[in-house]
Amino acid sequence: MQGKGEAARQIGLRIKEARLSRGLSLRALAEKVGVSAQAISKYERGLDIPGSGVLLRLAEALGVKWEYFIRPRRVECLEPAYRKRSSLPAKELKAITTRAKEHLERYLEVEDLFPGEKAGEELPRLEAWTPEEAEDAAEELRRIWDLGLDPIENLVELLEDKGVKVIPVDTRDDRFDAMAFRTKDGTPVIAYNKNLPGDRQRFSIAHELGHLVLGLGSSPVEEKIANRFAGAFLVPRSVARRELGGSRRKLGFRELCLLKKKYGLSMQSWIVRAHEIGLLSERATEQMFRWFGKEGFRKKEPEPLPSEEPSRMERLVARALAEEIITKARAEELLGKPLREEGGACGAV
User: Fold this and answer.
1) How many domains would you assign to the chain?
2) Where is the HTH cro/C1-type domain (predicted)?
3) Cα–Cα dist 179/85, whole Å
């Protein structure tokens, strides 16, 4: 049984994590709860335990159930191993990391309900020291996973099946695309911005997969290698050559729209892909990107693809609820959202 000191420490860490994930200062949270900033600081440092009334107000202010504060901690430290965006403020990066960590803890708790259902296999470890070698590595991973050359219909579902924990993060900061982690026990995790267009999400997730599989850091050269891996994994070079034909002077706008829909790779990434494999000259590539910039399509392309959302965690919760392993209240706590009534739309448990 936990001692009072350890209980205070765990509750304090929970309060701090929830506060940081919502980007609140000590003073801002204190005002919402009706206590002093000094009191919040003492709670977070484990020097004092909030009473039941304060705990309920903390839960309401932080948008969590009170059970969150006493839930066992499964992930003590989760720091981004890759893709540290220099343009992303430290405060927002910390909030994103904390949200991903909290979601991952709930995911691991859900898996514990079905010990025999722990997903996936060990991710292959491949090598690539140049962008050209990244092409070969992407094709080798497709071969290992028996994917052939067909378009990957749902990248998120594929990675979930392979044991990667894919975590959607709710942030409106479009400077954050995605980042990869490994937990202390080696579990691979990819957190991504759930509010970006689907094609941008897919490339970012494939980029982070490259970091995990190739063991890359975040230097400019390694970022280029991960980018090349992502493009090649989503559209292998033989497929790109088949779709685009031989050497091209330019790629048509409608052609790019259709290719984006078929392969889930953005129009601009298709332009880069054509240049990478020698079908589009440097000059032609620059001209096309200038046109995209002039039309205002660099940041927001037309006809964006819908987002891909992980569903394995929610399926396991639905199964546990149906088998009466957990209550509705527990299901809502694990999912971090309310459940719809029976007979409602199939989009929620």
Assistant:
1) 2
2) 15-69
3) 9
Chain-centre distance of CA 175, in angstroms?
14
Q: Closest by alpha carbon to 55, among 47, 67, 46? A: 67
Report the predicted TM-score, pTM, of the whole model to 2 decimal places: 0.81
Tokens at residue 111, please?
């898996």
Residues comprising the chain, all counted: 349
Q: Do 140 and 79 reside in the same domain of the chain? A: no
Residues 280 and 166 in one domain: yes
Residue 335 lies in a domain: no
Is residue 212 located within the same domain as residue 279?
Answer: yes
